[in-house]
Design goal:
Order of helices and strands: EHEHHEHHEHEHEEHEHEHEHHEE
Number of helices: 12
Radius of gyration: 21 Å
Number of strands: 12
Structural class: alpha/beta
Helix content: 25-40%
Strand content: 5-15%
Oligomer: single chain
Largest sheet: 8 strands, parallel, barrel
Distance between the termini: 50 Å
Length: 446
């Protein structure tokens, strides 16, 4: 299998709109990124994509069509109980393909690979059930059928596009193998989850593809495309107004240093470039940030890798090029694979609607017992919205910033706050995915 040929950083742009095409083309020409993601009406511009290909002929262009409806997301509603046997994967795939077909005709020779449905949930943090396995088998059958049509149209296909941390149960990959075998790439989303104050960062859902590769047999393994990445607070807030450009780039460099250890990861596109929706402006990586990112990508060679088969964990033969000193902004993130604690302190978390101790423990890499002990909770099934709890400082996967330069931009208005719905789906062109996995629990915060 092709494990990706990039000799540079794996970071690149997720383009939702070519609002400043000259800036975009400058990034592409300078960075020569391994992958470029284009999405929706604004991103799928044949003239702009053609120029991008001219500037960087070896970049893989991955595209995604916006679907108003994804029946696979509604299996419980459409096919309750035993009726799931009536789901017709072939008909669903044909319907999806028909919606994509005008773009498939238009972008021949410009786009290299297409994603299909986006962030379809097939399980949650409840114990694995036969219903979960049925949903996985439905998604796999859909993927086989759509991949066949995409191939017939002359394109490659990137399978699944699961949201961060999904599926929750790695065992479900046993049911998803046929879809992988039928596809050319595996597309995944990985987000770093900050706390409310953007002081500490949970990275436990990053590089989760390694667990997938350990589970999946070699003949079904496919090169990885991280088609969305970045930092995201519950789908409500991006880095603007919380981190300086230097601080955000430093955080992404640390993530990138992990990606560069895995030759089967082709690239990772940062959400999002060219945002024209006020709701998501705090995620915008255009302007000065994209110019800083281009400098970094162009100057950052991938460390030499000890040859290993996919599914292993390659180790660099020399230290990573990621700087270990404090950045100019005064921020020094720790390595995602090396959890950091905050000496003498704990992380404070405010209970949101729908929270459970199990979900909170999963997010912060701790246990329900540890949360109960740290907060003297009498009844773990009874927590309240707005209640403040303490997360043990040594919780696994939390990355602490030694100094946090919060630099609000007056020109960027923060995304309007809304209730956290961590099962929120991302299908509309203006939307992005939330970092959380699943929410259904028997005892929710009320």
């Amino acid at each position: 299998m092709n494990l990706g040929k990039s000799k540079m950083s794996k970071l690149s742009l997720h383009i939702s709109n070519w609002l400043d095409p000259d800036d975009t083309f400058d990034f592409i020409a300078k960075a020569q990124p391994a992958v470029i993601k284009v999405f929706g009406v604004g991103g799928l511009d044949d003239v702009k994509i053609s120029e991008a290909k001219r500037r960087s002929p070896n970049s893989l262009i991955v595209a995604r069509h916006y679907f108003e409806s994804q029946p696979l997301e509604r299996l419980d509603e459409l096919f309750p109980g035993d009726k799931i046997a009536n789901y017709d994967a072939n008909a669903d795939a044909q319907n999806a393909f028909a919606q994509m077909q005008p773009e498939l005709v238009k972008f021949g020779g410009l786009v290299d690979a297409w994603e299909g449905y986006n962030e379809v949930p097939i399980d949650n943090d409840q114990p694995l059930s036969e219903r979960n396995r049925q949903k996985a088998r439905c998604y796999s059958a859909f993927t086989v059928a759509l991949a066949k049509r995409i191939h017939h149209a002359g394109y490659k296909y990137a399978a699944y596009s699961f949201s961060t941390g999904n599926p929750v149960h790695v065992e479900l990959w046993d049911e998803l193998l046929d879809g992988l075998r039928a596809s050319d790439y595996l597309a995944l989303h990985e987000y770093i989850a900050p706390d409310e104050n953007w002081q500490n960062f949970y990275t436990g859902m990053c590089n989760r593809y390694r667990a997938i590769y350990t589970r999946v047999p070699r003949e079904a393994q496919r090169p990885i495309l991280i088609t969305e990445c970045g930092a995201d607070y519950f789908g409500q807030q991006g880095f603007h107004g919380k981190l300086s450009n230097d601080a955000y780039l430093s955080l992404l460099k640390t993530y990138d240093s992990n990606l560069m250890q895995d030759p089967y990861v082709v690239g990772a596109t940062i959400y999002c470039y060219g945002i024209d929706s006020q709701q998501w402006k705090t995620y915008d990586i255009g302007g000065n940030f994209s110019r800083m990112l281009a400098d970094y990508v162009a100057a950052t060679p991938t460390p030499h890798i000890i040859a290993t088969e996919p599914g292993g964990t390659p180790q660099p033969t020399q230290p990573s090029t990621q700087p270990t000193g404090t950045t100019p902004s005064g921020v020094q993130p720790t390595h995602p694979s090396t959890p950091a604690s905050v000496p003498g302190s704990a992380i404070e978390y405010i209970i949101q609607r729908g929270d459970t101790l199990t979900a909170i423990a999963r997010r912060f890499g701790t246990t329900v017992a540890a949360l109960v002990a740290a907060n003297r909770i009498a009844n773990p099934s009874l927590i309240r919205v707005g209640q403040k709890i303490s997360i043990p400082a040594a919780a696994r996967g939390m990355v602490a910033f030694a100094a946090q330069p919060a630099v609000p931009r007056k020109t960027k208005r923060a995304a309007k706050s809304k209730p956290s719905t961590r099962a929120r789906k991302k299908s509309a062109p203006a939307k992005k995915n939330q970092p959380a996995r699943t929410r259904k629990k028997s005892a929710r915060a009320k």
